[in-house]
Amino acid sequence: MEEFKKILILENEIEARLLDSVLKERDIPHRIKSYHDSAYDGIYQAQKGWGVVEAPLPYKEEIISLYQDLPVRNQLPSEHEE
Description:
The chain is an alpha+beta fold. The protein has a domain at 1-55. It contains four helices and three strands. It has helices spanning 13-25, 43-48, 60-68, 71-74; strands spanning 5-10, 31-34, 51-55. A three-stranded antiparallel sheet has the order 1-3-2. It is globular and about 25 Å long. The termini are far apart. Mean pLDDT is 83; it is low at 78-82.
């Protein structure tokens, strides 16, 4: 079994679902873990992000590239826009 490592941090559940769908479609082994903890009412998600993608390291660059190409990522306003 391949060792899974942290690849990137997800900002929200929409990103998580979209990326999960794309990775499954391409048969890329991965795990998506949410930082939500009901005992703390999701407080760690505000500090750490929504969750994390874990996968074998040989897939890291491909996963990052796919993440950057997600439609939801391209619709976010840039830091310079008002």
